[in-house]
């Protein structure tokens, strides 16, 4: 699209929102620009017809389920009949001009992708957050519009731009709970939806594994409750956490339960949902990036690799093998050929290693143990199954830590593979 500012004598843009639900829209062209326009039109609920001899694979994928009607030929006079809106997005300026001319004669608003000055309508840079739509016109410069749009959306997400209506006083409003997975620790790795939920919360119940940087950015009126469970240290009982969520929600507050990783991966998320539902409190789950995959990935270790492993298993190591309350079949885990990822298994590592070796895992199997994954203090130790107890005994790692067993450890994409028999502190 032409980035040259349009002559102001041609008139300024009159911003208006088109309600296209169920209305016919014609897009002439089947390339990348057409694909992007179609995506936005479908989101608005329009009945989209694409006229083009060929289309992108992504557009073609929309045809079979009936989301898009494809007229597989070039543009012809009359193709805009009955259309409320048209987009001319071919690579041929003459075809685009013909589409725009028909639109002018039939009083159909038309956006020409190749010539803003010849368009009767300009497509803004659009962003959405639930029912809020942000549209920016850049005075003829699309990149300028995109930059401003992205800045506005980022501000709405992190709360630096106050959406006062969404943070209205809680008086008379029904409360709710959102379980948010905060990812492995780095605040930049929380999902957009999770970040938004935190920014709009009245109360945040967070543990020590949640992204702490997000808490510092919250307004002073947001109540932050520390629900940490320190290994072999101070912790808030799960029953107390459940009661707090229900209590604040029943008082009409928006409550976010902010956890590290994903709420449903050893996060007791289902227990909290059950407590809320039993009390009649609406509850939503926002999944997070589990540390079982993210922490090895950030250290350059894939949990799967083509031609090397077709399986991986995630295991809680908070109870050692043989413990009467342990639900893990360590003999079955040892017999697997793929990757084993152990969470909460620093102190129990020697016992787990003994069980894996006893049931068939070779002592020379590569192992990586990553502590403080995704954080500036992250440390990675590479060793073998046989060498892991010594690494733990030396105090080279501390909780929270994730350790990975398997040949994938040697596929470190961030540096040349090390000798798996030598423990290596990064």
From TrEMBL:
Associated pathway: Porphyrin-containing compound metabolism; siroheme biosynthesis; sirohydrochlorin from precorrin-2: step 1/1
SUPFAM superfamilies in the cross-refs: NAD(P)-binding Rossmann-fold domains (SSF51735), Tetrapyrrole methylase (SSF53790)
Reactions mediated catalytically: precorrin-2 + NAD(+) = sirohydrochlorin + NADH + 2 H(+)
Record keywords, A-Z: Cobalamin biosynthesis, Lyase, Methyltransferase, Multifunctional enzyme, NAD, Oxidoreductase, Porphyrin biosynthesis, S-adenosyl-L-methionine, Transferase
Xref: InterPro entries: 4pyrrol_Mease, 4pyrrol_Methylase_sf, 4pyrrole_Mease_sub1, 4pyrrole_Mease_sub2, CobA/CysG_C, NAD(P)-bd_dom_sf, Siro_Cobalamin_biosynth, Sirohaem_synth
Domain Tetrapyrrole methylase: 177-388
CDD domains on file: SUMT (cd11642)
Protein name stated in the entry: Uroporphyrinogen-III C-methyltransferase
Organism: Blastococcus jejuensis
């Amino acid at each position: 699209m032409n980035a040259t500012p349009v002559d102001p004598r041609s008139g300024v843009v009159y911003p208006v929102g088109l309600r296209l639900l169920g209305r016919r829209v014609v897009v002439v062209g089947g390339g990348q620009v057409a694909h992007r326009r179609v995506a936005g039109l479908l989101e608005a609920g329009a009945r989209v017809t694409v006229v083009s001899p060929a289309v992108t694979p992504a557009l073609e994928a929309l045809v079979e389920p009936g989301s898009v009607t494809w007229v597989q030929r070039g543009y012809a006079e009359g193709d805009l009949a009955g259309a409320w809106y048209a987009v001319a997005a071919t690579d041929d300026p003459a075809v685009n001009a013909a589409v725009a001319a028909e639109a002018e004669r039939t009083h159909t608003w038309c956006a020409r992708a190749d010539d803003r000055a010849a368009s009767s309508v300009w497509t803004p840079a659009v962003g959405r957050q639930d029912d809020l739509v942000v549209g920016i016109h850049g005075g003829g410069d699309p990149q300028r519009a995109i930059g401003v749009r992205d800045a506005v959306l980022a501000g709405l997400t992190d709360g630096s731009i106050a959406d006062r209506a969404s943070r209205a006083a809680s008086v008379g409003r029904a409360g709710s709970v959102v379980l948010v997975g905060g990812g492995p620790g780095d605040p930049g790795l929380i999902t957009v939806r999770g970040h938004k939920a935190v920014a709009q919360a009245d109360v945040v119940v967070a543990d020590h594994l949640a992204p702490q940087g997000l808490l510092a950015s919250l307004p002073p009126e947001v109540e932050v409750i520390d629900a940490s469970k320190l290994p072999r240290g101070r912790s808030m009982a799960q029953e107390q956490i459940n009661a707090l969520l229900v209590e604040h929600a029943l008082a009409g507050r928006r409550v976010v339960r902010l956890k590290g990783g994903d709420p449903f991966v050893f996060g007791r998320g289902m227990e909290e949902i059950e407590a809320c539902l039993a009390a009649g409190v609406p509850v939503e789950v926002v999944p997070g990036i589990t540390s079982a995959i993210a922490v090895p990935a950030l250290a350059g270790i894939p949990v799967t690799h083509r031609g090397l492993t077709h399986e991986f298993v995630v295991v809680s190591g908070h109870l050692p093998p043989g413990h009467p309350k342990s639900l893990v079949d360590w003999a079955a885990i040892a017999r697997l050929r793929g990757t084993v990822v152990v969470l909460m298994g620093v102190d129990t590592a020697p016992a787990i290693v003994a069980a894996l070796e006893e049931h068939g895992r070779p002592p020379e199997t590569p192992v990586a143990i990553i502590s403080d994954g995704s954080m500036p203090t992250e440390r990675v130790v590479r060793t073998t199954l046989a060498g892991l107890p010594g690494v733990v005994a030396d105090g080279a790692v501390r909780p929270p830590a994730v350790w990975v067993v398997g040949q994938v450890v040697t596929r470190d994409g961030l540096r040349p593979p090390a000798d798996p028999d030598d423990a290596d502190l990064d």
